[in-house]
């Protein structure tokens, strides 16, 4: 909420998401500046709307002089907070855009699973009738796969995991899920499992949908992958550091894993010549699973809802707890 000593004047908002992303709001003065680092303007505004691409990759490691200035609330245009330096959270309140990208990420996951079972890229007809006939005969001898009856494992069951589950149920998949809290899941068609080992051992497709914390870093390592169901397809749409990439390579090379679809890596991007670019069992995309035409509008709407709460003095939704890492 606004500080009780704040005079009755327009709230000053520093918007770094780009001009035109926010509508005019009564009682709010918007400063559009997506070029100047936020820590150099912390004296100019009470509220900051910012995102990972607004210079935070090169932010100073130590707390800048004068931070947090006049800032009393920062809203992040991302769900994860690991892009930002620890000192950002010296601001009284920080909230995030948890759930905004859940739908496009869920569609990305479904498309990855469909590609894995259908393999349409290898069955395209490009060279005339002879190939057409060959591929038709091949479909009789080696039918296309189907998601129906396969088991989807969800490591993490927040907004993204739930959006994936809803879509997977429409494909008649069996769904297993494990929450980071260990709490059981009360959702129709979704079965809680007790351990990561159980999840790995029973999944045909496993989606990593956890935040990156000290506890989850390299959670999927060689020991974990040793329990994977033969033919497992691993999908990471969360953070690259959840996965030990050396262990991943060994599992792919041995055939213990059938494939990996990676939208995130460690580091990001991988250096030139990295094995991930060429491995035949890897589908690599450049951290784009969140992308959607309505993404900026959805982010702005989530912020506006929180802004109304802030102005009323109500508790913010999706407030970040730095001690938990999300």
TrEMBL record:
- InterPro entries for the chain: D-isomer_DH_NAD-bd, NAD(P)-bd_dom_sf
Q: Which GO terms describe its molecular function?
A: NAD binding; oxidoreductase activity
Location of the D-isomer specific 2-hydroxyacid dehydrogenase NAD-binding domain: 112-289
Question: Which keywords has UniProt assigned to this entry?
Answer: NAD, Oxidoreductase
Pfam families for the chain: 2-Hacid_dh_C
Sorted alphabetically, which SUPFAM superfamilies does this protein's record hold? NAD(P)-binding Rossmann-fold domains
Tell me which domain of life the UniProt entry assigns to the organism this sequence originates from. Bacteria
User: Do you know which PANTHER family this protein is assigned to?
Assistant: 2-HACID_DH_C DOMAIN-CONTAINING PROTEIN, D-ISOMER SPECIFIC 2-HYDROXYACID DEHYDROGENASE NAD-BINDING DOMAIN-CONTAINING PROTEIN
Q: What is this protein called?
A: Dihydrofolate reductase
**Organism source for this protein?**
Malikia granosa
């Amino acid at each position: 909420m606004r500080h009780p000593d704040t005079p009755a004047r327009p709230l000053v908002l520093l918007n770094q998401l780009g001009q035109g992303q926010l509508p005019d709001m009564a009682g709010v003065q918007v400063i559009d500046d997506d070029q100047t680092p936020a820590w150099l303007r912390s004296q100019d505004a009470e509220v900051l709307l910012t995102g990972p691409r607004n210079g935070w990759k090169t932010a100073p490691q130590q707390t800048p002089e004068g931070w947090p200035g006049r800032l009393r609330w920062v809203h992040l245009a991302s769900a994860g907070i690991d892009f930002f330096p620890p000192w950002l959270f010296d601001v009284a309140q920080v909230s995030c855009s948890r759930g905004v990208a859940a739908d496009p990420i869920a569609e990305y996951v479904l498309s990855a699973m469909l590609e894995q079972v259908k393999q349409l890229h290898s069955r395209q007809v490009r060279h005339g009738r002879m190939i057409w006939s060959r591929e038709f005969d091949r479909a009789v001898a080696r039918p296309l796969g189907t998601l129906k009856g396969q088991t989807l494992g969800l490591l993490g069951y927040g907004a993204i995991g739930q959006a994936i589950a809803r879509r997977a149920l429409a494909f008649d998949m069996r769904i297993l899920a494990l929450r980071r809290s260990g709490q059981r899941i009360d959702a129709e068609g979704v079965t809680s499992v007790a351990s990561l080992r159980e999840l790995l051992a029973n999944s045909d497709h496993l989606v990593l949908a956890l935040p990156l914390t000290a506890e989850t870093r390299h959670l999927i390592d060689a020991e974990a992958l040793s329990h994977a169901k033969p033919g497992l397809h691993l999908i990471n749409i969360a953070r690259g550091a959840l996965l030990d990439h050396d262990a991943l390579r060994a599992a792919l090379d041995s055939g213990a894993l059938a494939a990996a679809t990676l939208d995130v890596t460690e580091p990001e991007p991988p250096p030139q010549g990295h094995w991930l670019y060429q491995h035949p069992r890897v589908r690599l995309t450049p951290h784009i699973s969140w992308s959607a035409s309505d993404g900026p509008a959805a982010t702005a709407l989530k912020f506006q809802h929180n802004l109304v709460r802030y102005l009323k003095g109500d508790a913010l939704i999706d407030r970040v707890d730095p001690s938990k890492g999300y």
